[in-house]
Design goal:
5 helices, 47% helix
């Protein structure tokens, strides 16, 4: 697997050292001025480019067109979408394992086809992500433990 393929398969996990925050020997050091704000900004910027690559194959598999993807603070929602194909993902999602990020992406893409949580909606999710129930349960368990500063909600 090439370096580029590996970077597409994992979410970004370190801040760039030219910012106020640094990853030093596996320990995240937040800068004094705006550390949390800078980190949220980093998750948003880096997450957006990573997620745009990540969502493409899922959208093709589901036969939907994504007209835009943004990484935003969405309160306590993992994602949202609009009927015109725009998908929004909460920046904190980037802290999750890739399999759970995929579940969030597939969930939002399914909403482009079904705007509810009906049995048909869950059949769409199951069709492209067999065993999604395990991901849903893991997300329910892991979600409350993610880092989510007040200013980044």
């Amino acid at each position: 697997m090439s370096r580029e393929q590996k970077s597409r398969s994992r979410p970004p996990s370190a801040v760039e050292t030219h910012e106020r925050n640094q990853l030093i020997r596996g320990r995240l050091e937040l800068g004094r001025s705006g550390g949390a704000r800078d980190l949220v900004r980093w998750y948003r910027r880096v997450g957006e480019s990573w997620l745009k690559r990540r969502i493409r194959p899922w959208a093709q598999r589901m036969g939907v067109e994504v007209t835009g993807l943004r990484v935003l603070p969405l309160g306590y929602r993992w994602g949202s979408c609009s009927s015109d194909g725009k998908v929004n993902i909460h920046w904190a999602t980037m802290q999750l394992p890739p399999t759970l990020i995929d579940y969030v992406l597939v969930h939002e893409l399914a909403h482009l086809l079904r705007h509810d949580h009906s049995a048909e909606f869950w059949r769409l999710v199951e069709r492209v992500l067999p065993g999604y129930e395990d991901c849903r349960e893991r997300l329910r368990r892991l979600g409350p433990d993610l880092w989510l500063p007040e200013e980044g909600r």
